[in-house]
Structures are given as structure tokens and as C-alpha cells.
From TrEMBL:
<dbReference type="InterPro" id="IPR027417">
    <property type="entry name" value="P-loop_NTPase"/>
</dbReference>
<keyword id="KW-1278">Translocase</keyword>
<keyword id="KW-0472">Membrane</keyword>
<dbReference type="GO" id="GO:0015833">
    <property type="term" value="P:peptide transport"/>
</dbReference>
<keyword id="KW-0547">Nucleotide-binding</keyword>
<dbReference type="GO" id="GO:0016887">
    <property type="term" value="F:ATP hydrolysis activity"/>
</dbReference>
<feature type="region of interest" description="Disordered">
    <location>
        <begin position="356"/>
        <end position="396"/>
    </location>
</feature>
<dbReference type="GO" id="GO:0005524">
    <property type="term" value="F:ATP binding"/>
</dbReference>
<comment type="subunit">
    <text>The complex is composed of two ATP-binding proteins (NikD and NikE), two transmembrane proteins (NikB and NikC) and a solute-binding protein (NikA).</text>
</comment>
<dbReference type="Pfam" id="PF00005">
    <property type="entry name" value="ABC_tran"/>
</dbReference>
<dbReference type="InterPro" id="IPR003439">
    <property type="entry name" value="ABC_transporter-like_ATP-bd"/>
</dbReference>
<dbReference type="InterPro" id="IPR003593">
    <property type="entry name" value="AAA+_ATPase"/>
</dbReference>
<dbReference type="GO" id="GO:0015413">
    <property type="term" value="F:ABC-type nickel transporter activity"/>
</dbReference>
<feature type="domain" description="ABC transporter">
    <location>
        <begin position="6"/>
        <end position="273"/>
    </location>
</feature>
<keyword id="KW-1003">Cell membrane</keyword>
<protein>
    <recommendedName>
        <fullName>Nickel import system ATP-binding protein NikD</fullName>
        <ecNumber>7.2.2.11</ecNumber>
    </recommendedName>
</protein>
<keyword id="KW-0813">Transport</keyword>
Length: 396
């Protein structure tokens, strides 16, 4: 196996809060191989964004504090070397904040923002625009090249009238168009690794589908690697090669998309998947309870207080190790052991883990698994996507 592009090992992140020291990220291991798209899935508050912020060198410190672990990019350790981290981020990483209203400035036009990205994206080597070296005396030429590059990207993201859009302010665009602009901006710096962090607010299904489709196309076209953060397993199913299921700052399970969705082993993964409403059945099972208090997390497996298969004296002892019943399919749960193969493990999962039709406390994980077709949700799109600008017409 080749070395991963990005590798996190045994990451620990604490926060100092008024209530005490909050031990949020507790020994996370994660990697993204070259050309791979990996999703992190978990309910609100489980530590997805903190993980993303750590990777992007954007963790607010204080109150955050990285108390252990490593982050390697192409083998280079970055957590202990902030300048290297900043350089790698500028040269190789792109971020899509999927909350356009907070991440796009209201006072600049799309064109101005894209130009800023191109001017300040921190490439240390002279790129296709010979940025940085040649601003003096060549401003006009650079402006033109930047504008052309921006238009090309907006066009690739199927934004109608890209030239017109450059002169617009974010508020003049619909939600879907703003999202596309954000993706275009993330691609401007020619990253090789993208990280996308979805907000918990549900986006309209059709708009979301289109964005995922577009993102997928760009990823494939450029051969990019991506870490996609979502609370929605349906979205993960559409975009990810592999899925990490995160619970309370720990990785509960990791496997290929199909392993996680079709043969989940961890009780939490099974609960998440059960809690997704099926279109044909209104009755749903779910996971009772809430995420633990990070200032006093449960001993042992952090999920054990909510787990229907918890074993007294076992799960409340030591943190469970990662068992690997199939190559690359790992699960942090004492129901399994090193002797089990994939078949045995699945049998255990099916016989030992039974959720009693409990309620689902986290509505955001209940989004569609993706069974709903675009047509079925088209009516809602009309109502939900604001279209205050004129630039949103005609391309659907
Ligand atoms: N700036 C901060 N100060 C204090 N605690 C924080 C801070 N940021 C995050 N946390 C703690 O870390 C936990 C995980 O937060 P994080 O934003 O990573 O969750 P998430 O999985 O991204 O959730 P969501 O799906 O809602 O975005 C929070 O519940 C909170 O306790
Ligand atoms: Ni988040």
C-alpha cells in the first residue's frame, strides 16, 4: 500500500471552557489516500469540524489545544511545525465552507473575492499566472488573466452568465449559486486536497444532489483527494469511497462505503443507519440519549451509556481497541475480537445489536439516505431555494 496523502494519528484536542477541560477529540486515526474521497459522518457535536479545523490549521487556540497526535501530509509532520502547516495549506489544500452566507463577504463582488483568492493564495512557486513576482507593471495583464480564470471556473460549475456573476454581490445570488461560487473559489488555488464541511442545517435535497454531482465531477476531472464532512449518510453514500463513523470525538468504525452502509458493525453505526427514515415506512428506530459531556466523558467506550449491547464491566473499562474483521474495515467495539472474520462479525452484529424503537434525538441525522429522487423533491426546491438574483435562471 502506498503512503496516504493525509494521515492523522492519535489526535487529541481539548477545549478549556467555563465548565472545565473538555476532552473532545480522543485519539482519532484517519487517513486519506491520493485520489480518494473520504467522509466523516456523525451527529452534531461529535467533533467533525474540530477535526477539519485541525487539518486546516484553523483551530482557535485558545480555547482549543492540541494535546497529542500527528498530522502528516505527504509524510511531513505539520502539527509541530506551524509555518510548514501554513505553507502546505496554502499550496495544496482547499476548503469549502458550506455555509455561503458566513463565508462569503457581503461587501465584495464575486469577482473581487475570486481575484483576492488568486492574489493571496500563498503559492510559493510561480504558477500559471506568474503571480506575486510580476504585479508591478503587469497589473493589467494579470487582472485579465485572473478574470479569465475565474470565468472559466464559474463556467465549469455550470453557473449561467459567469461574466455577469463576477460583478454581483453574494446576496444577489441564490443559495445554490452561492454554493457553486464557493466550490469555484476552493478550486481557484489549484489544490490537490479538498476539505468540505457541511453545516447541520438541511439543504434542499435537489440542490444538494446537484452540488454533489458537480463536486464529484471536479474531483474526478482533477484527480483530487477530498475529506467530506457530513451528518448525512445519504450524502456520504453518494460522494465517499470510504466512510469514518465518528462518535463523541472517537472513530467508532471505518470501512468502504458499502461496508459501512450495508454491513455496519458498530452499534452506533447501526443506530445511525436505522435512524434514517425509509420512504416506505414511517416507523423508525433510533438511538436514545445525547452525546456525553466532554468534561466528564464516560469511561471506556464513550458510546456505552447509549448502547443497547453494552456489557457491564467490559465497555465501561478501557477504551476499546480497533478490531479489523476485514482488511480496512475497523470497528472499536468489544462485541468483536481479533479472531473474527467479516462473516462472523456480521453475524454478531445482526444477533447482538437490537435497538428498541427509541426516539431519535438528533433530527439532523435523519435526512434522506438518498432514496428520494430529484423529481420527488422538485416541488420543494421551488419553494426553498431563494432566487433573488437574475443569475439563477435557465440552467436546470
Ligand atoms: N471554540 C470552541 N470552544 C469550546 N468548545 C468547542 C469549540 N469548538 C468546538 N467545541 C466543542 O467540540 C465539540 C465538537 O464540535 P464540532 O464543531 O467539531 O462538532 P461537529 O461534529 O462539527 O458538529 P456539527 O455537525 O453540529 O457541525 C462541541 O460539542 C464543543 O463541545
Ligand atoms: Ni461541524
Amino acid at each position: 500500500m502506498s503512503d496516504p496523502l493525509l494521515e492523522i494519528s492519535d489526535l487529541h484536542v481539548d477545549f478549556n471552557t467555563y465548565d472545565g477541560r473538555s476532552k473532545v477529540i480522543n485519539g482519532v486515526d484517519l487517513h486519506v489516500d491520493e485520489g480518494e474521497t473520504v467522509a466523516i459522518v456523525g451527529e452534531s457535536g461529535c467533533g467533525k469540524s474540530v477535526t477539519a479545523e485541525t487539518i486546516m490549521s484553523m483551530l482557535p487556540q485558545p480555547p482549543g489545544e492540541i494535546t497529542g497526535g500527528e498530522l502528516r501530509y505527504r509524510g511531513e509532520e505539520l502539527l509541530g511545525d506551524p509555518p510548514a502547516h501554513k505553507r502546505v495549506k496554502a499550496e495544496s489544500m482547499g476548503m469549502i465552507f458550506q455555509d455561503p452566507m458566513t463565508s462569503l463577504s457581503p461587501v465584495f463582488t464575486v469577482g473581487e473575492m475570486m481575484r483576492d483568492v488568486l492574489t493571496y493564495n500563498g503559492k510559493t512557486e510561480v504558477g500559471w499566472l506568474e503571480l506575486g513576482k510580476s504585479v508591478l507593471g503587469r497589473r493589467g495583464a494579470d487582472e485579465k488573466a485572473m478574470r479569465e480564470r475565474s470565468i472559466e471556473l464559474l463556467d465549469r460549475l455550470q453557473i449561467p452568465d459567469p461574466e455577469g456573476v463576477l460583478d454581483r454581490y453574494p446576496v444577489e445570488l441564490s443559495g445554490g449559486m452561492r454554493q457553486r461560487v464557493l466550490i469555484a473559489m476552493a478550486l481557484l488555488g489549484e489544490p490537490e486536497f479538498l476539505i468540505a464541511d457541511e453545516p447541520t442545517t438541511a439543504l434542499d435535497v435537489t440542490v444538494q444532489d446537484q452540488l454533489i454531482e458537480l463536486l464529484r465531477e471536479q474531483i474526478d476531472r482533477e484527480g483530487l483527494s477530498m475529506l467530506y464532512i457530513t451528518h448525512n449518510l445519504g450524502v456520504a453514500r453518494r460522494i465517499a469511497d470510504r466512510i469514518y463513523v465518528m462518535y463523541a470525538g472517537e472513530i467508532a468504525e471505518v470501512g468502504t462505503r458499502d461496508e459501512i452502509l450495508d454491513e455496519p458493525l458498530h452499534p452506533y453505526s447501526r443506530g445511525l443507519i436505522d435512524s434514517i427514515p425509509k420512504l416506505t415506512a414511517f416507523q423508525r428506530e433510533g438511538i436514545d440519549g445525547l452525546l456525553p459531556d466532554y468534561t466528564e466523558p464516560p469511561q471506556g467506550c464513550r458510546f456505552h451509556p447509549r448502547c443497547p449491547a453494552a456489557m457491564d464491566g467490559v465497555c465501561d473499562g478501557e477504551k476499546p481497541p480497533l478490531y479489523e474483521p476485514a482488511d480496512g474495515h475497523q470497528v472499536a467495539c468489544y462485541l468483536y475480537d481479533d479472531q473474527m472474520n467479516a462473516q462472523d462479525a456480521l453475524e454478531v452484529a445482526q444477533t447482538e445489536i437490537e435497538f428498541e424503537g427509541g426516539s431519535l434525538d438528533h433530527p439532523e441525522v435523519s435526512s434522506s439516505l438518498g432514496d428520494e429522487t430529484a423529481a420527488e423533491s422538485a416541488d420543494r426546491t421551488e419553494m426553498n431555494e431563494p432566487t433573488s438574483g437574475q443569475t439563477d435562471g435557465g440552467n436546470r
